[in-house]
Amino acid sequence: MAFTGKYKLESQENYEEFLAIIGLLNAKTDQKVITDVVQDGNNFTWTQSLPNWTWCNNFIAGQECDLQTMTGDKFRALVTLEGGKISVPFPKYHFTAELIEGELVMNCTTPGEKGVTFKRISRRV
Prior knowledge:
The chain is mainly beta and 125 residues long.
């Protein structure tokens, strides 16, 4: 399927600002995040990993799903897939992901006047 593949971080914008706003500045790392996506129709397994840390969510686009944050907090949200873009409302930010010219582009946007959009671009490996 379209998203299936392994991607390595190429560039990112507003990383530290985003981590500060969501209270995870102590989680900052210079390691290159690997994102591994398995898509089977609307079923997804989305895994992000660094040395010594892995975060994984399984979800079905178009359904309310049980998910977890980077810190392991559990929540429930409606995951959508429209126009080739995955959208998930996390508790502290809104996540989107899409493929643009073969690159995985992920955005995490925090709400409010002082909101920030953290953009991460990863290339298929």
